[in-house]
Recover the amino acids of this structure.
């Protein structure tokens, strides 16, 4: 029996490795961050997915940034700035003595290089970047370098959103030297001025960043951070427990509940700047009738959705702008759950019982909608109760976006997570008539109110926040009465960590900034 | 000469099978909605940009034309580029980076499955019809019928302290000592026992999971072949000669029963190499199986075609080797001639 050596060997392997203690604590300056997916592109002008943004936030800086606890704009690479009287010229004084990770000094030329790449489709240094956010910066006419430490942005028209757009990741300042040297390889080997230096990226296995010892805000508390993609939320929880990772995000609601109960883990939450909503296609009868849209709003029991689909890990939405953000209209009188009122309204509008409704509902969970199948079931039932006959369609996510963007739905579930914490990013993006053009519409209600359009455009051009606020509140009141969509929920942000991770604070924008995170010696383990 | 003829036939047939396989994959992936251009440009892309990229990449050409171009590229050793992987690496580079992971996992699973499976089969045959036989066959039935992903999840729950993804602790790297790509071997060559320990800890659960099906199959086949052999005349003769039962079992019956096992083992290994998709997905094992799944989900044409080509080639090649081995080992097959055999088993 020659084979008998193998079981023996196996026993040895099991014996040696199975009983070996957990990895030694020698690595305790390396933080491992578990997340759902891998990054896609690390060129700020090419990226658009959240996983890539997590890397960009740590490798790059922007001219201005959000403050630590909220969304106030504070200086970053720009130390101060001023606006001309007409709001069209912005002059920025740049921070001195900052260097890119490749040693290139940060100066006005780097700023101009970055924005030229971003706004000109024919820029020679684009290197195939998809530039999905170009429209957000289209208002920039040009960028002049007036001295090494001073740049002047000239805008086509005054803009109240401009400064916030400078805080967004596409406006991350890239190293011109490395960009020209690396070309399209820059998107896998990014070079910025940020708190962490890019080290290596093994696709779908790990992405490693090292602390930038010369960082102008002070060097990070950890020496390295490794981002590790782990598809399933339950698997991320398991790896937190087994010590394979220190932090995990994108947690499903059941996993959040399990982590909350676990004494060895910590779940941190904060109100999220996102909104899930039900869009009603104003182009499709009977939804061109405001009474029918209001009937749907009265038919949906949001508190049932909050309880069952969100397990109370979110807030009921009464308007599109999240409660956690400035610009939220606090005094709107939300449509109460009242199926009888719905039936009356439908009768008035002459909608026959049994009218078919094409209801698009995604199957995959989204950052604003953790369990779409439950929400779909609730809404389907409620539509039936007021006499509609919903036909649910759930194609795969790419086709879903294609089809609703093309206006093929009567009603559909959708949501939005803000890019820049500005109400414009919700109201203009999702309800302005300029965004209601198929086949790539974002305004899935195909709501084309001229009045709202005027208010939103005016608000874009004002630079005083108070004036903008009152414009946005007026717009939200009109939208509330026209009822082009039913805002459903704002999902809380959440992140899980092991007990020994300290110093990290969840930011309300969802940006992951790891500079302040540190690992403390973990007592008995 | 006969063996050369046989090898030639197998080679030609293998090539034809590969082309057909590629053809099917090539068309199937293009029939699904969406496409690489949409995935590459993202949600904010306009229809015009998508059309332009499709045109640039030639994805708007007739599918047959694309297929012929692809085949000719493959013939020149160019498997194309994985458009949706960061940095757009060559598919060939990606595959040679990932294949060792699959090989290591499959070989480890076989190292578990073969001795245990044969051992169990022997026990069952020796105690035919009595309780050890029933227990073993019960285990074997469970082994083939339990879904792999379910078993994987059960094991992860049962051993919460064992690592659940990857080949190595992410803080460690094999880069400086990598030779074969098989971590257990490379770390031994370099004498890096810390790496060896981490690699083997990561390997155990996936290897055990992957080994269950071949283990169960091997146990069943061993049992039935042994039982058949034990009833043969030469066994009775040996017993009559006065040899002890144990001696007859181990020295007479086993070697004879071993011949058909060779082809079974080879076939199982081929299946593992080509089909560790579920195990690799459950354990986030960075091998070819997981790569195929991700490529199919992302509609990364080049990556998917390249990976399927590799898996198909490995499967067909191993099959051919097994047939040739069996031909060499078994005098009965040699007498019946190559044509029979060539018709025998198809991939």
């Amino acid at each position: 029996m020659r084979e008998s050596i193998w079981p023996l060997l196996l026993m040895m392997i099991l014996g040696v490795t199975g009983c070996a203690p957990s990895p030694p604590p020698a690595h305790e300056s390396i933080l491992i961050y578990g997340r759902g997916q891998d990054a896609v592109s690390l060129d700020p002008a090419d990226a658009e997915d959240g996983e890539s943004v997590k890397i960009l936030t740590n490798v790059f800086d922007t001219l201005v940034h959000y403050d630590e606890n909220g969304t106030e704009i504070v200086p970053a690479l720009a130390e101060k700035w001023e606006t001309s009287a007409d709001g069209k010229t912005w002059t920025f004084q740049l921070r001195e003595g900052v260097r890119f990770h490749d040693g290139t000094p940060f100066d006005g030329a780097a700023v101009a290089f970055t924005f030229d790449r971003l706004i000109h489709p024919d820029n020679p240094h684009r290197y195939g970047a998809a530039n999905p956010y170009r429209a957000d910066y289209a208002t920039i006419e040009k960028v002049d370098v007036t001295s090494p430490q001073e740049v002047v942005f000239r805008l086509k028209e005054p803009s109240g959103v401009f400064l916030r757009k400078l805080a967004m990741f596409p406006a991350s300042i890239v190293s011109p030297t490395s960009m020209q040297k690396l070309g399209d390889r820059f998107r896998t080997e990014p070079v910025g001025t940020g708190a962490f230096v890019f080290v290596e990226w093994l696709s779908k296995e790990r992405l490693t960043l090292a602390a930038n010892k010369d960082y102008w805000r002070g060097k990070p508390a950890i020496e390295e951070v490794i981002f590790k993609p782990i598809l399933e939320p339950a698997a991320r929880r398991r790896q937190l427990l087994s010590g394979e990772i220190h932090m995990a995000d994108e947690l499903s609601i059941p996993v959040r509940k399990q982590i909350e109960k676990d004494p060895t883990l910590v779940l941190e939450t904060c109100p999220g700047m996102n909104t899930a909503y039900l869009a009603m296609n104003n182009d499709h009868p009977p939804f061109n009738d405001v009474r029918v849209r209001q009937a749907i709003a009265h038919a949906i029991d949001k508190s049932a959705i909050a309880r069952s689909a969100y397990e109370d890990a979110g807030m009921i939405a009464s308007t599109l702008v999240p409660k956690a953000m400035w610009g939220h209209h606090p005094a709107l009188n939300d449509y109460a759950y009242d199926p009888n009122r719905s039936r009356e309204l439908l009768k008035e509008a002459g909608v026959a019982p049994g009218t078919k409704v094409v209801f698009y509902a995604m199957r995959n969970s989204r950052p604003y909608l953790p369990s779409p199948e439950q929400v779909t079931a609730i809404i389907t039932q409620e539509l039936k109760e007021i006499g509609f006959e919903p036909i649910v369609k759930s194609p795969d996510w790419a086709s879903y976006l294609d089809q609703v963007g093309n206006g093929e739905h009567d009603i559909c579930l959708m949501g939005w997570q803000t890019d820049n914490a500005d109400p414009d990013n919700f109201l203009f993006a999702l309800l302005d008539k300029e965004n209601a053009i198929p086949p790539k519409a974002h305004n899935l209600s195909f709501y084309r109110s001229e009045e709202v359009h005027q208010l939103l455009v005016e608000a874009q051009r004002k630079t005083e926040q108070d004036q903008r606020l009152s414009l946005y509140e007026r717009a939200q009141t009109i939208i509330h009465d026209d009822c082009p969509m039913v805002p459903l929920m704002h999902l809380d942000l959440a992140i899980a960590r092991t007990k020994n991770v300290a110093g990290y604070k969840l930011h309300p924008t969802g940006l992951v900034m790891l500079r302040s995170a540190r690992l403390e010696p973990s007592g008995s383990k | 000469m006969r063996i050369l003829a046989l090898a030639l036939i197998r080679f030609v047939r293998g090539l034809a099978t590969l082309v057909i396989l590629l053809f099917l994959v090539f068309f199937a992936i293009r029939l699904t909605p969406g496409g690489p251009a949409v995935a590459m440009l993202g949600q904010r892309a306009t229809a015009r940009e998508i059309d332009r990229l499709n045109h640039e990449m030639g994805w708007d050409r007739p599918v047959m034309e694309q297929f012929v171009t692809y085949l000719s590229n493959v013939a020149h050793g160019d498997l194309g580029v994985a458009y949706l992987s960061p940095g757009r690496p060559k598919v060939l580079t990606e595959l040679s980076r990932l294949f060792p992971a699959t090989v290591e996992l499959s070989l480890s699973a076989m190292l578990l499955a073969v001795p245990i499976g044969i051992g169990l089969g022997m026990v069952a045959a020796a105690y035919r019809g009595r309780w050890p036989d029933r227990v073993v066959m019960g285990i074997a039935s469970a082994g083939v019928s339990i879904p792999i992903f379910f078993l994987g999840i059960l094991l992860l729950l049962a051993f919460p302290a064992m690592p659940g993804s990857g080949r190595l602790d992410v803080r460690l790297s094999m880069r400086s000592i990598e030779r074969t790509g098989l971590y257990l071997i490379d770390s031994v060559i370099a004498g890096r026992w810390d790496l060896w320990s981490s690699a083997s800890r990561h390997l155990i659960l996936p290897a055990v999971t992957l080994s269950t099906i071949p283990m169960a199959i091997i146990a069943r086949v061993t049992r039935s072949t042994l039982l058949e052999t034990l009833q043969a005349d030469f066994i009775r003769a040996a017993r009559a000669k006065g040899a002890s039962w144990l001696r007859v079992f181990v020295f007479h019956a086993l070697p004879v029963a071993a011949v058909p096992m060779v082809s079974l083992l080879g076939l199982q290994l081929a299946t593992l190499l080509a089909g560790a998709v579920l195990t690799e997905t459950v354990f986030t094992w960075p091998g070819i199986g997981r790569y195929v799944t991700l490529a199919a989900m992302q509609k990364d044409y080049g990556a998917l075609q390249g990976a399927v080509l590799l898996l198909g080639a490995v499967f067909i090649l191993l099959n051919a080797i097994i047939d040739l081995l069996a031909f060499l080992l078994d005098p009965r097959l040699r007498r019946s001639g190559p044509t029979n055999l060539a018709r025998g088993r198809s991939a």
